[in-house]
TrEMBL record:
Membrane topology, as annotated: Multi-pass membrane protein
GO molecular function annotations of the record: diphosphate hydrolysis-driven proton transmembrane transporter activity; inorganic diphosphate phosphatase activity
NCBIfam families with a match to the protein in the record: PRK00733.3-5, V_PPase
Subcellular location: Endomembrane system
Keywords: Ion transport, Magnesium, Membrane, Translocase, Transmembrane, Transmembrane helix, Transport
GO cellular component term of the entry, any: membrane
TM ranges: 12-30, 77-97, 109-133, 172-192, 204-222, 302-326, 346-365, 386-410, 430-454, 461-481, 525-543, 555-575, 634-662
Record organism: Phaeomonas parva
UniProt-listed PANTHER family: K(+)-INSENSITIVE PYROPHOSPHATE-ENERGIZED PROTON PUMP
Protein name: H(+)-exporting diphosphatase
EC number(s) per entry: 7.1.3.1
């Protein structure tokens, strides 16, 4: 059974609009938390009041963070705008020349520009909502404290109030980005469809892939630039503040603390948003390109070709329904409920997607269809086979996420072992953390191997692309949880800088600790989907080359292929070396600046002196360093496949992409999880009441080393895999 074009288009458009409307509703709910000293602005009974000075400090700190984030994104996007124009012209020229059609070149360039602009808009929206929601999460945590003559504690209703504020702030980014990305792609497809006959839909889908290229290109700048920014500030603030001078994290006396909080937004929010938008665009484009090679799917109608978009669209409905579990049905009432509520989101969305994907497969795909791929003679598949491919990706993503949580949460043994190793110093902490990262790659890689094998056997490379779409079908929830973490992190920093009660910081730290783990889970999803997307794009490239390569395959023993296989496997190390060194250089400059301010104004180290450091100089250091250092890694990723193909031919590109994928996915997982474990090992020591001890100092060193692992190099390897393949 297949559906009409209008029916298909209606569902896709409805899902996009519902996502955007729900994001707006979430924003309105967050905005109801007023930053004021009026007790009537709180919905809680018996809420603690804020004095005028603290209200002023809250507003001032949040404004400084917002202004710093906006100024960085403006500078970064100015560079991106130049890149979009130049690279768009290159695409127009190359496609027009290769296809002998100026129309094809112009439409591909237009798709590229729209993908890039959508990615920039997604990052900006996420960042602005995060800096809007962070101070409101602080206020919600403060108002949730019991007022009275007894001990101050967080009320059950207060936990719900604070958690919901942070969760809904993340939800604005999650649903706005998912809806915007789907809507723009749907509009492009609808317009381009009027320009090409059904027989030329394969050409049209290749043109549409420019949308994925645009999204991933901007994600590279966002991930690398934002990652260098945030970690330069974080490392500088930690080394001079916490380690050398025993100043608490986010203390207003530390000159780098505003830059550190700005970095949480430009790296973890804008960067991750652009990254996952790129994954969505590329996986969908890869599936569309491969589906368009099948005469059976084209004959079945527009609905069969749009199946990947329908999976994403109905995923939005599933994520929307599941979000009420956390905010309304099973509310957070205590510290122990926070991590459970976030984990429940991941499980619930995956479980609900199974029947939804079955219904979509049966309704929109033909019972049997032949699909061309790298298997000689193609593959004969059924709609149930396609359903299994989608669900294998969806369930596989959940398994990878839960394994990531096991290795990075201080609720489990691995991270507690890392914490315990700090008793003998920083060296053993580093050894344990790196060992954990390597070990944590085993099960996720095995899961990816099973997904690829099952999907490939059932539907060839089209199945792999569908598995990637399945893994990203719950994108709205993944982005919601990922945006939640930096909001809570910033909320704690604002509470510290505004000198609120210590209990407020304890609440935000509890919310943030769960956010650290869920951020690691989000990175696991991003890495897993990047591996599948990269393979699907690689496959689309091979299929496009024709029978010469699809029938014979790629012989790894050919000297050229094997040589570039080694070079491709080396690229993630080269890329990581560049990004890690960039963080180190920027951090050294930051450390010197913080030391200079402490030396010239010793009163900064005196608690209660009222002296305010020069925050702007640290913000400028991070901004300048990140914009300068992000160019070389991006050039490495973009130019390597182009140069290899131009000078050595397509077989060199085969080896390059294969090596980069196999090496990159394992390195990305290990680096991200090592960094996450070091961070939460430090938090476990702090929670155990050992802050300021030698154990804690060793943990801070490990956390500092892990910062570029988990927030710069590790996550950026996703884009190396995807961007190399789509170029």
């Amino acid at each position: 059974m297949t559906q009409s074009d209008d029916f298909t288009n209606g569902w896709i458009a409805a899902a996009s609009c519902v996502a955007l409307a729900f994001a707006l509703i979430q924003f309105v709910l967050v905005s109801k938390v007023q930053v004021s000293n009026s007790s009537t602005s709180s919905t809680l009974l018996n809420a603690q009041a804020l004095d005028d000075r603290k209200v002023h400090m809250l507003s001032w700190v949040s404004t400084e963070i917002a202004n710093g984030a906006k100024s960085f994104l403006f500078a970064e996007y100015s560079i991106c705008a130049v890149f979009i124009v130049v690279f768009g012209l290159i695409i127009f020229g190359l496609i027009s020349w290769g296809q002998k059609s100026a129309q094809d070149g112009a439409l591909t360039a237009l798709a590229f520009v729209l993908g890039a602009v959508t990615s920039m808009a997604s990052g900006y929206i996420g960042m602005m909502v995060a800096v809007y929601g962070n101070v409101r999460t602080t206020v919600a945590a403060q108002r949730g404290l019991s007022a009275g003559t007894g001990a101050v504690s967080m009320t059950p209703r207060g936990w719900s109030y604070a958690f919901n504020t942070a969760f809904r702030s993340g939800g604005v980014m999650g649903f706005a980005l998912s809806g915007l990305g789907l809507l723009v792609l749907f509009i492009i497809l609808s317009i381009y469809k009027t320009m090409y006959d059904q027989d030329d839909w394969d050409v049209m889908m290749e043109i549409i892939s420019g949308y994925g290229l645009g999204g991933s290109s901007i994600a590279m700048f966002g991930r690398v630039g934002g990652g260098i920014y945030t970690k330069a500030a974080d490392v500088g603030a930690d080394l001079v503040g916490k380690v050398e001078n025993n100043i608490p994290e986010d203390d207003p006396r530390n000159p780098a603390t505003i830059a550190d909080n700005v970095g949480d937004n430009v790296g973890d929010v804008a960067g991750m948003g652009a990254d996952l938008f790129g994954s969505f665009a590329e996986s969908t484009c890869a599936a569309l390109v491969l589906a368009s090679q099948s005469p059976d799917l084209k004959e079945a109608g527009w609905g069969a070709l749009m199946f990947p978009l329908l999976v994403s669209g109905f995923g939005i409905f599933v994520c929307l329904i599941s979000s009420f579990l956390a905010t309304n049905i099973k509310q957070v009432r205590s510290a122990d409920d926070v991590e459970l509520a976030l984990k429940l989101q991941l499980v619930a969305t995956t479980v609900l997607m199974v029947p939804v994907c079955y219904a979509l497969s049966v309704s929109f795909l033909p019972k049997k269809f032949d699909i061309d791929g790298v298997t000689s003679g193609g593959v004969s598949a059924t709609n149930i086979d396609a359903f299994v491919c989608v669900i294998s990706g969806c369930i596989g993503g959940l398994v990878i996420g839960l394994i990531t949580e096991y290795y990075t949460s201080f609720s489990y043994t691995p991270t507690r072992e890392v914490s315990d190793s700090c008793r003998t110093g920083a060296a053993t902490n580093i050894i344990y953390g790196m060992s954990l990262g390597y070990k944590s790659a085993i099960i996720p890689v095995l899961v990816l191997a099973v997904i690829i094998w099952v999907s490939f056997k059932l539907c060839d490379l089209y199945g792999v692309a569908l598995a990637a779409c399945g893994m990203l079908s719950t994108l709205a929830t993944g982005l919601t949880i990922d945006g939640y973490g930096p909001v809570c992190d910033n909320a704690g920093g604002i509470a510290e800088m505004a000198e609120l009660q210590p209990e407020v910081r304890e609440v935000t730290d509890t919310l943030d600790a769960a956010g650290n783990t869920t951020a690691a889970i989000g990175k696991g999803f991003a890495i897993g989907s990047a591996a599948l997307v990269s393979l699907a794009l690689y496959g689309a490239f091979v299929v496009r080359l024709g029978d010469e390569y699809t029938s014979q395959g790629v012989n790894v023993f050919e000297p050229l292929v094997f040589s570039f296989l080694l070079i491709g496997a080396m690229l993630p190390y080269w890329f990581s070396a560049m990004t890690m060194k960039s963080v180190g250089l920027a951090a050294m400059e930051m450390v010197e600046e913080v030391k200079r301010q402490f030396a010239e104004n010793p009163a900064l180290l005196v608690e209660g002196s009222g002296e305010r450091p020069d925050y702007d100089s640290c913000i400028q250091i991070s901004t300048r360093a990140s914009l300068k250092e992000m160019v070389a890694p991006a050039a490495l990723v973009m130019l390597t496949p182009l140069l290899a193909g131009t000078f050595f031919g397509v077989k060199a590109v085969f080896g390059l992409l294969t090596g980069g994928l196999v090496s990159g996915v394992q390195m990305a997982i290990s680096m991200s999880n090592s960094g996450g474990a070091w961070d939460n090992a430090k938090k476990w020591i702090e929670k155990s009441g050992r802050k300021g001890t030698d154990d804690h100092k060793a943990a801070v060193v490990g956390d500092t080393v892990g910062d570029p692992f988990k927030d710069t190099s590790g996550p950026a390897l996703n884009i190396l895999m995807k961007l190399s393949a789509i170029i």
